[in-house]
């Protein structure tokens, strides 16, 4: 039993606290090779994770790095440093604590490698970079513990996979390294334990008291929400009332654009001039830090924010969380609610503000799920190979390696435990030679095998390029926004695609301000202040949230009711209206609606089968529509429906579901679609085939760079079994379901298709027009559009070509 | 063969859907910016190991076009090779394929900025070439007329009923014609960029490549 030293006991006592049982248990189990703590937010999780390190470091005898703390968020690393420095200072412990993220200066980073602190707080990407240096063994000498915070957020992400590969490297450098994972409440702790531990070591799980049930309700408003629309603007007066009644309120939005619009209108209605800030990942670092500091100092009454504040940040006295827009995922909702009331054993308080009437239905379903503790599960997968390829490159940067050592090391990562020798060889060959059937690069290999069998970089100068490409996050290409003029203050970033739609004089919202677009200069969007004018809306970063499949099944069951006494009257009326003008979806039948809108013809298929199945259905139905000459242009899939648009109306859906016709030519259709190309691009960047900064060169209009789609098409024609193509298929399958399951679904509804043709959109289809993640269809529609444009524009310009 | 017929400087020319230009009455086929050997050059300079199939793919397309119109003369309008070393290092099969394409016809390599010198491949190497009324060179000269050139890799971008469409294109007015890049690994420059659009008069046309060539007024793009 490790007892709590007196200096710690006194410190707890001085604050009138006593350690939580799980904090003491973590100390007691300090020597376990892997230790996972599951605790609700506010359960003193951070202290529980660090307590064994602080106790071990208290005597001041340890030299060099002792504990590495990894968090998925930069903001979290600096926040934890602040929270940790206070008790260390109060107890007078001789412990040096520093953070290291993408924001840390390069001089400081260099110093940290030569003279590391006792406790280093960092991110998965910064850690991967640290392991790529030749002096990694010296930097990490003496390392005893690693703490992975918010590990549940890393479970199904490539960032988590990269982190665990980096830990396998650290474990080889420091064989006695002990691993600690800190997690929010999850449905399957064993899966997180499997992720954390050095395979096949056991992992101890410490469960903290989950605390009382949260107090979640829907916000009552005088104005009903609109049919469609995602901003929650209608609720602003009611939200302001709640902000006044509480000390500090966090107002979460699902997208950055919605947060901006909401903040803008909240500010216009803020007659009492309450101090309210905005925080999201597209704002400049200076702006984010200003808001974070104001929050820590207790100067803000509310923060309008997005997922950038989502992960366990322990800031001040938050006593209310407002979620605008349906939470989409019950697990995420519970974690967000955990932000309120950071006092252990006090219920958190949260209000849901559905943005439209369909979201009221979704919110009701989500609340029911929370009451029943029905957290969404996720599918477990094997470790992705694009991340593995990057890991091999990172390993090569650190110095020559033996392939059998590296393979053994990789297999200590749970998700890669069953990696076969052949799979590993494929990845190594790809990294070394490109792995092409046509062996073109023997002279220019990236890795060479030395006479002694060790692998090393052919050209050591390649390390620079490899290090610049470290990471697995695929951000949309963005441009910085600054005020015009010398040294104009940075405001944040907007998506390149949005910037391309702007012409000088246009206005948009960023950081809660309306700014005027002046022009593009050296890849920076220049703007001027433009107070008061109604903005053209920023569409940057439409972060995609899929509702869980469980939630969509709950929603379908609700829609099947005869009436809805539990819903507000306006929403019940809205559902009755849908039933009147069209139908409500029913289990065992398939509702399809077709209607024109904005010079396109729409078809909505309500399958309630989950996003992956609806996405596959979108690919299959557009294939048949292309063959039937209906000129489909694109589709978007949600958990409950697929919305397809094209140039011609769908009159009879029956032929779309002809299984034989669907199967024919399916492979070539699937291989050529936009989902595959999008997936290829992301994996090609991670695996090191395409440079991350490649996109930046494209922005400057250099014609030397070309689209990654060309690489995909070339491989498809000449080397369809190349590793990158296999990775693309594996990765794309994560977002799709296989044809057999769709076949089953079609067979089970056979003959029971309800096709409703209307002259306008229906209540139920309206929210689909807000969805992000649209997939374009490559087909005859484009040529018909160009033919129409040719006829119209040439006549308009008074030209009929330069005819013969 | 499909294509878009138009008159330029008194000559009747045909813009082909693949991005090549054919001059039926002279039997001249023109392609620009093949950039053969590009992936090899990138690898040699320590860059990515891209799929090494772009030279095969470019020659396959060229083969198809030559097969389709059986030209007496083929003009490669510069930047045929990504650099001189790439031109010298072409695998033997590729050299043989080129020889096969050259057999029985006149073949002209116009010099480009990527391939400024002669190569030990068949065909003649010229800085520029005049046939009848037309002059062929790699980079447009602003004061010139009757000029056919390449170099800029023009591309047209537009949005129609919410759909973004981008296609390599020819750009033409009464004085000059610029060809799109024919090579497989080539990007494009927006034809409304002042660098390209500045060379043309207001009534210039963009001829978009694709399943069918489509003509659009340059002024209506962008």
From TrEMBL, chain A:
PROSITE patterns to which the protein is assigned, alphabetical: HELICASE_ATP_BIND_1, HELICASE_CTER
Keywords: ATP-binding, DNA damage, DNA repair, DNA-binding, Helicase, Hydrolase, Isomerase, Nucleotide-binding
Domain Helicase ATP-binding stretches: 26-204
GO terms, molecular function: ATP binding; ATP hydrolysis activity; DNA binding; helicase activity
GO process terms (BP): DNA repair
Domain Helicase C-terminal: 235-388
Residue ranges, annotated region (Disordered): 97-116
Record-stated family: Belongs to the Lhr helicase family. Lhr-Core subfamily.
PANTHER family, alphabetized: ATP-DEPENDENT HELICASE LHR-RELATED-RELATED, LARGE ATP-DEPENDENT HELICASE-RELATED PROTEIN
The protein's name: ATP-dependent Lhr-like helicase
UniProtKB/TrEMBL annotation, chain B:
Domain Calcineurin-like phosphoesterase: start-end pairs: 28-119
Pfam families to which the protein is assigned, alphabetical: Metallophos (PF00149)
InterPro entries xref list: Calcineurin-like_PHP, Metallo-depent_PP-like, PdeM-like, Pesterase_MJ0037-like
Gene3D superfamilies listed in its UniProt record: 3.60.21.10
Signal peptide: none
MF term (GO), any: hydrolase activity
Protein name: Calcineurin-like phosphoesterase domain-containing protein
Organism: Donghicola tyrosinivorans
């Amino acid at each position: 039993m490790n007892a709590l030293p007196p200096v710690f006991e006194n410190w707890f006592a001085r604050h009138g606290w006593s350690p939580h049982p799980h904090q003491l248990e973590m100390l007691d189990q300090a020597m376990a090779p892997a230790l996972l703590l599951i605790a609700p937010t506010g359960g003193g999780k951070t202290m529980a994770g660090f307590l064994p390190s602080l106790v071990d470091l208290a005597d001041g005898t340890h030299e060099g790095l002792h504990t590495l703390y990894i968090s998925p968020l930069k903001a979290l690393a600096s926040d934890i440093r602040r929270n940790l420095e206070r008790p260390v200072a109060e107890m007078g412990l001789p412990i040096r604590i520093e953070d290291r993220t993408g924001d840390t200066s390069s001089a400081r980073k260099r110093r940290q490698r030569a003279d590391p602190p006792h406790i280093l707080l960092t991110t998965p990407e910064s850690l991967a970079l640290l392991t790529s240096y030749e002096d990694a063994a010296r930097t990490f000498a003496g390392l005893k513990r690693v703490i992975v915070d918010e590990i549940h957020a890393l479970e199904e992400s490539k960032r988590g996979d990269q982190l665990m590969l980096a830990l396998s490297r650290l474990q080889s450098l420091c064989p006695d390294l002990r691993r600690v994972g800190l997690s929010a409440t999850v449905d399957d702790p064993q899966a997180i334990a499997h992720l954390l531990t050095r395979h096949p070591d056991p992992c101890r799980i410490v469960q903290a008291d989950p605390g009382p049930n949260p107090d979640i309700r829907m916000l009552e408003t005088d104005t009903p929400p609109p049919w469609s629309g995602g901003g929650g603007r209608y609720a602003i007066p009611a939200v302001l009332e709640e902000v006044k009644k509480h000390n500090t309120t966090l107002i979460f939005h699902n997208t950055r654009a919605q947060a901006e619009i909401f903040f803008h209108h909240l500010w216009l209605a803020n007659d009492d001039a309450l101090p309210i800030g905005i925080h999201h990942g597209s704002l400049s670092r200076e702006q984010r830090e200003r808001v974070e500091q104001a929050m820590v100092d207790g100067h803000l009454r509310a923060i309008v924010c997005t997922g950038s504040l989502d992960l366990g940040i322990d800031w001040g006295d938050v006593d209310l969380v407002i979620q605008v827009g349906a939470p989409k995922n019950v697990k995420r909702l519970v974690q967000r609610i955990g932000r309120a009331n950071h006092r252990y054993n006090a219920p958190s308080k949260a209000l849901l503000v559905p943005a439209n009437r369909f979201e009221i239905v979704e919110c009701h379903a989500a609340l029911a799920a929370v009451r029943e503790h029905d957290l969404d599960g996720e599918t477990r997968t094997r470790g992705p190979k694009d991340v593995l390829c990057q890991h091999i490159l990172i390993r090569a940067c650190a110095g020559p390696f033996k392939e059998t050592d590296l393979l053994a090391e990789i297999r200590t990562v749970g998700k890669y435990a069953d990696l076969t020798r052949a799979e590993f060889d494929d990845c190594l060959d790809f990294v070394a030679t490109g792995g092409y059937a046509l062996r073109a690069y023997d002279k220019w290999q990236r890795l060479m095998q030395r006479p002694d069998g060790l692998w090393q970089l052919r050209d050591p100068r390649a390390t620079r390029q490899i290090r610049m490409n470290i990471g697995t996050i695929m951000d949309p290409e963005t441009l910085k926004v600054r005020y015009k003029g010398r040294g104009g203050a940075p405001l944040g970033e907007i998506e390149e695609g949005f910037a391309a739609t702007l012409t000088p004089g246009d206005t948009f919202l960023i950081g809660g301000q309306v700014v005027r677009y002046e022009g593009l200069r050296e890849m920076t969007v220049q703007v001027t202040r433009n107070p008061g004018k109604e903005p053209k809306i920023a569409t940057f970063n439409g972060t995609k949230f899929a509702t869980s499949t469980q939630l969509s099944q709950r929603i379908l069951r609700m829609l099947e009711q005869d009436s809805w006494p539990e819903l507000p009257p306006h929403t019940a009326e809205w559902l009755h209206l849908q039933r009147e003008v069209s139908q409500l979806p029913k289990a065992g039948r398939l509702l399809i609606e077709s209607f024109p809108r904005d010079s396109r013809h729409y078809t909505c298929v309500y399958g309630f089968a989950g996003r992956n199945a609806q996405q596959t259905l979108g690919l299959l139905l557009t294939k048949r529509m292309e063959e039937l000459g209906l000129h489909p242009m694109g589709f978007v899939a949600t958990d409950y429906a697929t919305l397809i648009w094209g140039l011609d109306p769908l009159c009879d859906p029956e032929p779309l579901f002809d299984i034989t016709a669907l199967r024919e030519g399916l492979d070539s259709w699937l291989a050529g679609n936009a989902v595959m190309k999008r997936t290829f691009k992301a994996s090609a960047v991670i695996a090191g085939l395409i440079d991350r900064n490649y996109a930046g060169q494209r922005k400057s209009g250099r014609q030397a760079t070309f689209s990654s789609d060309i690489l995909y098409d070339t491989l498809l024609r000449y080397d369809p079994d190349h590793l990158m193509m296999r990775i693309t298929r594996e990765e794309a399958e994560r977002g799709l379901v296989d044809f057999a399951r769709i076949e089953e679904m079609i067979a089970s509804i056979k003959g029971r298709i309800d096709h409703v043709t209307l002259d306008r959109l229906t209540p139920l289809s309206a929210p689909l027009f807000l969805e992000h993640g649209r997939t374009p269809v490559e087909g005859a529609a484009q040529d018909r559009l160009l033919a129409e444009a040719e006829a119209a524009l040439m006549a308009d310009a008074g030209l009929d070509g330069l005819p013969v | 063969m499909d294509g878009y017929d138009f008159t330029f400087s008194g000559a009747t020319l045909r813009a082909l859907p693949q991005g090549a230009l054919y001059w039926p009455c002279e039997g001249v086929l023109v392609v620009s910016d093949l950039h053969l050997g590009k992936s090899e050059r990138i690898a040699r300079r320590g860059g990515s190991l891209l799929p090494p199939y772009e030279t095969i793919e470019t020659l396959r397309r060229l083969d198809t076009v030559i097969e389709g119109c059986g030209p007496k003369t083929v003009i490669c309008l510069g930047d045929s090779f990504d650099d001189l070393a790439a031109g010298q290092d072409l695998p033997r099969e590729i050299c043989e394929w080129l020889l096969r394409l050259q057999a029985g016809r006149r073949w002209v390599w116009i010099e480009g900025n990527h391939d400024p010198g002669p190569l030990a491949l068949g065909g003649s190497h010229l800085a520029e070439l005049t046939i009848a009324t037309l002059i062929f060179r790699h980079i447009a000269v602003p004061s010139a007329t009757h000029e056919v050139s390449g170099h800029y890799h023009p591309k047209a971008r537009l949005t129609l009923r919410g759909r973004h469409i981008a296609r390599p294109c020819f750009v033409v007015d009464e004085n000059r014609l610029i060809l799109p890049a024919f090579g497989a690994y080539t990007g494009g420059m927006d034809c409304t960029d002042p660098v390209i659009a500045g060379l043309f008069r207001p009534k210039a046309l963009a001829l978009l490549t694709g399943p069918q060539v489509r003509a659009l007024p340059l002024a209506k793009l962008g």
